[in-house]
Amino acid sequence: MLPIRTPDRQCEVAWFSALCSDDYEFLGVPDGALRSSYEHCGDIVRKADGHGFQNILLPSGWIAGQDALTFAAAMAPQTRQINQLVALRMGEVWPPMLARAIATVDHIAQGRLCINIISSDMPGMKESNEVRYARASEIIQILQGLWRTEGPFEWKGEFYNISLPNTEPAKPYQQNGGPLLYFGGISPAAQELCAKHCDVFLMWPETEDRLAETMRGMTEKAAAHGRRIDFGFRGHVIVRETEAEARAAADRLISKLTAEKGAEIKARSQDSQSYGVQRQDELRSQAKDLYLEDNLWSGVGLARSGCGSAIVGDPEQVLAKLNRYMDLGIRAFILSGYPHLDECDLFAKHVLPKLPTCRLNELQNRRVAHPVTPLTTAERK
Fold it and tell me: Is 253 helix (H, G, I), strand (E, B) or coil?
């Protein structure tokens, strides 16, 4: 067993709300009923909340859709128990104001907030990998410094020079260090950023041996900084009562997709040329009938930048695959399927009740290195 933050065999299971126009019945064929609207994306969040998913990813991108943090603020009072994992691109907002915005949403959500750190190019800009990750590293340290520090705050770095008389405007509801930070990226600079600063390292679908290799490397990188991290899996799922039905559903999903349309959709993303996306494309090119290994189908990546594979099978096969990932040490699953509302129902019916679930940000071993005295209810008000 890897020395991870969450050694118990428990997992956080999250769903996905298609804020970035990523919902289809047939991949690549726009459907007005599934477009990225506040109403439709809100329906997905409320559905996942009602089914008992512990978290939901709210993605961010410069395409038609919703702003993730604003959307999370609106949804927090409408949900009962689910966390929201908000994707934020580092550098879009002046860090002290971003810290205050995050803290505000954290209070609205009463602590049911996590952050997915993104370091891809900002709209209209093109920068080197090194610059983007160096800036993101500074921003993360500024955010965490504002969340954890009492009194004045000073920061002098390569990208930011900040002097604040107090940190009170940025105090989050979560008084033990602020929201958990999730991060995904496979380049050396990305992995180093996560090893230094983040709590959960997210991986896109690959063969199990390659996932295990990545996890071993990340464990060593985190240990070099005196840290432990959790591991997460971001993938799609297609579960049906029989394997034949699941494979047929996968084939149907791409049955109206042309190569030209798929390339057009992938090119919309700010990270379409990233190292991780290229690695997904490479794996798919080597797959037999689009299957990377048993029950892992790479067809989604024909028209999606980023996470491009789905676990495909009957309930027992999907459960077995997730259990093998848990045996590797994976403790967070961020899943999705097409259409997102329908697949949410199917996964919740066939698989979710059989998984040993938890919330990563409610575990007692969370950030013990940075204890902060919690505010009382009266003080929070």
Answer: helix
